[in-house]
Structure to design on (345 residues):
């Protein structure tokens, strides 16, 4: 097995592999189909892996760039030419089968509990820590929490018990603008005051009204360390807006939260609705009762220690060992052998 993270394939690689499994593209996006055909002609089974819906939703930071440069069409073309496509959930697989490629195999996301970042650490506070861990594309999701924390920070029953933690704050990066008249694209460094993270923060700290004990900001961590964020929360929040892009998201938040022994409050849609049971291994928020239920359920998990413990233990039992890297890798290897045997027959 040869694993490459960034280096390109070359002519010298043709004929050396029985299976070529790549994520999103081989070399440059516009050349991926060319290389798929070259490897197929050389006798390899070519498998494309994809975990995000090919067209981002309006409001996603990459939407305008993707649509203008027709990147979604390149992604679709790649899936059509691969021998197989792997993805993380059956919810996404149905779209791929219907529109791009009938040969779809599910390989779920997984966590390696042996890695240091996925090993739980002792609590460092007596507060009940309500946390959100995510990236910059979640504005529509987080809008569901608007005005949720103001009454919680003022509630005499919990105002001294609650600590809200936002993980991932990052004002680095670039912004790309498109001239509406000429179509010219320009990329520049984003100014800190422009960062969407400041808008996110205003949701979690009640527009700056939370006390330093009630709200904590945690800056972004490298991909090899980001799991450490979970050691600074007790209850994870997972709000989701309803659109196709989110419908195709994986169960990764469930896996990570469960592996770290945390409780989860999530929108009652898509993968959360499919895998979780309200009151048993998570609390699920009815999309029609967003403001009321987010507030109600957060207060419940702060006030009821036994409920919080029950949710976290049951979620751990749901994901372990099913979603450990060791188990998922064994299933992946079995599938590789299966498609090789079918090729021989």
């Amino acid at each position: 097995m040869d694993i490459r993270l960034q280096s390109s394939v070359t002519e010298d690689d043709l004929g050396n592999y029985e299976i070529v499994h790549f994520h999103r593209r081989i070399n440059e996006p516009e050349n991926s189909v060319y290389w798929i055909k070259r490897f197929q002609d050389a006798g390899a089974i070519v498998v494309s892996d994809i975990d995000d819906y090919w067209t981002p939703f309006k409001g996603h930071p990459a939407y305008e760039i993707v649509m203008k440069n027709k990147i979604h069409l390149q992604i679709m073309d790649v899936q059509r030419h691969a021998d197989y496509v792997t993805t993380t959930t059956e919810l996404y697989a149905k779209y791929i089968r219907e529109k791009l490629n009938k040969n779809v195999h599910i390989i779920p996301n997984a966590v390696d509990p042996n890695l240091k970042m996925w090993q739980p650490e002792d609590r460092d506070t007596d507060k009940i820590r309500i946390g959100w861990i995510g990236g910059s594309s979640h504005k529509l999701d987080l809008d569901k929490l608007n005005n949720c924390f103001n009454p919680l920070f003022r509630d005499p029953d919990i105002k001294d018990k609650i600590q809200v933690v936002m993980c991932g704050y990052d004002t680095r990066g670039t912004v790309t603008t498109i001239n509406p008249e000429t179509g010219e694209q320009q990329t520049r460094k984003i100014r800190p005051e422009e960062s969407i993270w400041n808008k996110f923060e205003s949701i979690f700290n009640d527009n700056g009204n939370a006390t330093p004990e009630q709200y904590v900001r945690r800056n972004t961590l490298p991909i090899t360390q980001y799991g450490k964020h979970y050691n600074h929360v007790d209850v994870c929040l997972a709000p989701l807006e309803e659109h196709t892009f989110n419908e195709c998201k994986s169960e990764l938040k469930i896996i990570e939260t469960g592996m770290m022994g945390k409780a989860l409050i999530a929108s009652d849609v898509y993968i959360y609705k499919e895998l979780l049971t309200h009151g048993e291994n998570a609390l699920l928020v009815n999309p029609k009762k967003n403001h009321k239920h987010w507030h109600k359920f957060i207060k419940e998990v702060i006030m009821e220690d036994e409920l919080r413990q029950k949710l976290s233990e049951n979620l751990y039992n749901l994901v372990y060992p099913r979603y450990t890297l060791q188990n998922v890798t064994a299933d992946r290897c079995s599938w590789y052998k299966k498609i090789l045997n079918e090729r021989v027959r």
Remarks:
- The CA atoms of residues 174 and 189 lie 4 Å apart.
- The chain has a mean pLDDT of 94.
- The longest strand covers residues 162-169.
